[in-house]
Each structure stands twice: as C-alpha cells, then as structure tokens.
Amino acid sequence: MTAKDICISLILMCLWGFNFSAIKLGAMQVDPILLTAMRFTFAVFPAILFVRRPPEAIGYLIAYGLIFGLGVWGMMVWSINLGVSAGMAGLLMDMSIISSLVLGYLLLKEKITFNKVVGAVLAVGGLLVSIALTDGSVPLRALPLTLIAAFSWSLMSLVVKKSETQHVFAFSVWGMLFAPLPLILFAYFLNGIQPFVDLPSQLNSQVWFSILFQAYPTTLLGYWIWNKLTIKYPLTTMAPFTLLTPIFGLIGSVIFYNEGITLMKFMAYALILSGLAVSQWQPKKKKTIEI
Fold first, then answer.
1. Do the domain assignments include residue 111?
2. Taking the mean position of all CA atoms in its chain, how far away is CA 163?
C-alpha cells in the first residue's frame, strides 16, 4: 500500500469518526429522523442526475436504501439524540461483528472460525462494560437503537453481497434514493406533524453544517474513496483501518463535547476493538516447497 493511500485512508477514518460529532450537533436541535432524511436527500441530489443506474434488480436498491437510511443511520442518530455520546456511538456500531457472524453462518453458510468466536466474546464483554458506564454516555433506553443500527449494518452488507454488484458507487447512490421517504414517514409516525412544523425555524447554520457534512464529505466523498481503495487493495489490508473510526470518534467527542475518558470506557474500547481485530485476523498460509 502506497504512503499516499495510507494517508488518504487515515484521513477518511478521521472524517468518519468526526462525523459522529457532526451528527450530535444537528441531532440535539432537530428531530433526529428528519435530520437523517435530509442527509440522504442531499447525498442523492444532485449526484443521481450524473450517475447511471446500475443494472442490479430494483429490490436490492430498495432494500439497501431502507436498511442504510432507516436501519443504520436513522436508529444511530436517534440514539445520539437520546444521549449516546459521539465517542461511544462509533464504538457501539462495531457490535456488527456479532450480527455479521450470525447472518454469515445462517444465510451465506460461512464457516464460524475460532478467531471469530473469540472476537464475538470480546465484543460482548465490551458491550457489558458499556452498559455499566455511569457517566451517562450510554443511556439504557438508547442502547437498543445502537444495536439495531449495528445489526442493520450487517444486513446492509449482506444485501450488497447478495446483489453481486460491480458498480458499488452507483449502487450506493441509487440505493440511497429509497432512504428519505421511509425516514420521513417514520418521523411522522413517531411524532406526528410537529417536527415538520418546527423544522424551518430550526435550520440554523449549525444544523445546515451537520446535514451537509454528513451528506457530502462523509457519505458521497467518503464512500467513493473507500470503494476505490477496497477495489485497489485486498479487504484484509483495508479492514484494519476501520478500527480507527471509533477512536477518532472519541477524540472528536473529547474536543467538541468534553467527553471524559474513564477506565471503564477505556476497557469497553479495548474489548470491542480487540474483538473486531481478532475476528478479522487471517493467518498467513505457509508456503510449501515442491521438490
């Protein structure tokens, strides 16, 4: 991997980590589901006018948009609105290693290796430590939403894999087309018309920054760069970089929201990130010498 691409990857993980702070900035002022709907609306338009629709079945695109929009980010932004800190939100998203293990085994007939089991156990240990935190960074009422978001991330990955798409960026843009409407309907189902009435008066400079930061650098630019790098390099090379996202998320939360780093929080980070690292580890095959 070139030094240039390593630097780009590090910057991208920093961008994705700081995104949780940007989300919190908007989620504390605007209905979180509506905020997410606006994020995907701006991420899709006007980009979709310049990207040809991929040939994959429309069902895959709808499933991707619904899961990515409402399942992943709708639930995660809602949890942040309920009090999950920007630092812990990124970490709890990594609980997807457990749901990915289960979905891979049940639906893709993937083998459950020893290192994946160890990784899942470490992650569960980190989750239990997170629940025990007493600084309010992981409110119990918000925890189910973060776990739904993590599960949805695994489900979204499954949809992409089953689609067998060769047009990753186009698939993402066209899939996100189906995210805003379900989010808008869900916001209305939860709180009625009031969030829509309040929205115009809430759209200050901070909220606009939150929306546009999520839509363009984080979503469109970020995923475009990531997809290019994952095509250029093996997944085993790129996957370890994702361990840095929650670390940058915590750094951003410390800088912008003065989030404290306690021993318990450090343990939660150590356990979950160790679990993710162990689950992704693949031993190198020994070379055999033919005589």
1. yes
2. 20
Residue-range definition of the domain harbouring residue 200: 3-277
Task: Enter the pTM of the model.
Answer: 0.88
Residue 92 tokens read as 């709890």
Amino acid letter, 37:
A
Do the domain assignments include residue 189? yes
Q: Look at residue 289 and tell me if it is in a domain.
A: no
Q: Are 218 and 56 in contact (CB under 8 A)?
A: no
pLDDT interval class at 288 (50, 70, 90): very low
**What tokens does 282 get?**
């693949």
Residue 255 lies in a domain: yes
Range 79-91 average pLDDT: 93
Tell me: the pLDDT tens digits for 156-168?
888 988 888 888 8
Segments in the chain forming alpha helices (H): 3-27, 32-44, 58-66, 75-81, 86-93, 96-107, 114-131, 143-163, 168-176, 180-191, 194-202, 205-213, 222-232, 235-238, 244-257, 263-280
Q: How many domains does the chain have?
A: 1
